[in-house]
C-alpha cells in the first residue's frame, strides 16, 4: 500500500529559499482559514472549505512558488498585482523575495467570501 503524501512530506521535498517560502505560505494559510482542512490535490497542498470546495492551492517550482486562487479572486486584485507575474488564478512568488503577506491575507479572505456569499466553486 502506498503511503499517502502529507503537506509536511510535500514541504520536505524542498530546501533553501523554496522551503522557507513554502513553509511561510503554509503558516499564512493555516492562520487565515483555520476552519479549512488541508489536503494534497493534484500533488500540491490545498485548503478545502468545510463545504468541500477547494479555496486555494500552493505549489513549489524551480524558481518560484505559486499561490493559486480562482481566476475571479486573482482578477479582483489585478491592480495590486500589476508588478507580480500572474497566471489564470496564480500569483507567482519568486524565491528569495519577501512574501506579500497582507495582500495574500486579503486575497484569502476575498476567496472565502466569494465562495460563501456568491457560491463560487473551484475552477
How many domains comprise the coordinates?
1
Widest sheet: strand ordering: 1-2-3-4-5
Percentage of residues in DSSP E strands: 15-25%
Described by the principal axes of the CA atoms, the overall outline is globular
Any guess at the CATH architecture? Alpha-Beta Complex
The total of beta strands comes to 5
CATH first level? Alpha Beta
Radius of gyration from the CA trace? 14 Å
Characterize the largest beta sheet: strand count, sense, and whether it forms a barrel.
Answer: 5 strands, antiparallel
The tally of helices reads: 4
Q: How much is the average pLDDT?
A: 95
Primary descriptors:
5 strands; Aspartate Aminotransferase, domain 1; alpha+beta
Please provide a written account of the structure.
This protein has helices at residues 7-12, 16-32, 71-76, 101-118; strands at residues 37-41, 44-48, 54-60, 64-68, 90-94. Helix content is 38%, strand content 22%. A hairpin with a 3-residue loop joins strand 3 and strand 4. It is an alpha+beta fold and 123 residues long. The chain has a single domain (7-118), classed as Aspartate Aminotransferase, domain 1, CATH 3.90.1150. Helix 2 crosses helix 4 (101-118). The mean pLDDT is 95. The chain has a 5-stranded antiparallel beta sheet with strand order 1-2-3-4-5. The protein is globular, with a radius of gyration of 14 Å.
Amino acid at each position: 500500500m502506498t503511503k499517502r503524501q502529507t503537506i509536511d512530506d510535500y514541504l520536505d521535498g524542498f530546501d533553501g529559499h523554496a522551503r522557507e517560502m513554502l513553509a511561510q505560505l503554509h503558516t499564512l494559510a493555516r492562520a487565515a482559514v483555520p476552519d479549512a482542512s488541508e489536503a494534497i490535490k493534484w500533488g500540491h497542498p490545498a485548503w478545502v472549505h468545510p463545504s468541500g470546495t477547494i479555496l486555494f492551492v500552493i505549489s513549489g517550482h524551480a524558481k518560484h512558488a505559486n499561490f493559486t486562487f480562482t481566476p475571479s479572486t486573482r482578477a479582483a486584485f489585478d491592480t495590486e498585482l500589476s508588478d507580480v507575474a500572474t497566471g489564470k488564478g496564480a500569483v507567482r512568488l519568486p524565491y528569495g523575495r519577501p512574501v506579500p503577506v497582507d495582500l495574500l491575507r486579503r486575497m484569502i479572505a476575498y476567496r472565502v467570501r466569494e465562495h460563501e456569499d456568491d457560491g463560487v466553486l473551484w475552477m
